[in-house]
Fold Olfactory receptor.
Amino acid sequence: MEKVNHSVVSEFILLGLSQSQNLQILFFLVFSVVYVGILLGNILILVTVTFVSCLHTPMYFLLINLSCIDMILASFATPKMIVDFFREQKTISWWGCYSQMFFMHLLGGSEMMLLVAMAIDRYVAICKPLHYMTIMNPRLLIGLLLSSYAVGFVHSSSQMAFMLTLPFCGPNVVDSFFCDLPLVIKLACQDTYLLQLLVIADSGLLSLVCFLLLLVSYTVIIYSVRHRAASGSSKAFSTLSAHITVVTLFFAPCIFIYVWPFSQYSLDKILSVFYTIFTPLLNPIIYTLRNQEVKAAIKKMRTKHRNSKHTFR
């Protein structure tokens, strides 16, 4: 039955970021460097948290999961986009297109819930410091992590289930560098008004509700921090500023694209680049440059590595 619905269109054409040859060469160089930076930055966080024992805390357990999601989120479309800069015809198979949409919403939904879990962690650490390790126990951490992935899976599956029934008989041109849900829906050969409402209700509301929850939680935390001693509050503000920056960078583009997903703004393409490529690059930078514990741990690891080299000599 699926084959009958989709036999007319077996692949989609991606327009990419630009049709200019000179710009495509520039984009190839820029995004190649950015993608390598994403991998190296997030791997650095994974290695540092894994091998430095002082970072074996609930916050950094959640952080390494965020790094894993960011690496995969950046990898679902970026390598193909980089290769496509040298292709005249940028095509993607029907199943490849649906795989991109599925994994983008799976990872995006999971990251949203993981950021909520990180906000819960910061609330407990700052507002209930004496009970932090008791409350944020391994059982709760695993529960928060599994819940994040479960919400991401349900969120993505609920939309893909409806997408699988849509007939595509042409045109098959997607004005982006990857298959994004609002853009692909518009190519269907039937009225998709209800499906558009579903996207707004699902993706848009998930983004908006998570963002509002985070906004409220961080407001409560900041209010609590302001009534503390200066020495304790400076470290708390430093950690909070990193979290708030990450939340804003991730949610702002998502809300714009998925709360108003069927507008004609060309800005959507730029925002898609931002939250699928630049946010995974900025996350490790923010969590290392603005986090004294991580910087100290990296320095400690480098010193240990140098000492071990001297020992073997």
Remarks:
- Residues 1-7 have pLDDT under 50 and may be disordered.
- The radius of gyration is 22 Å.
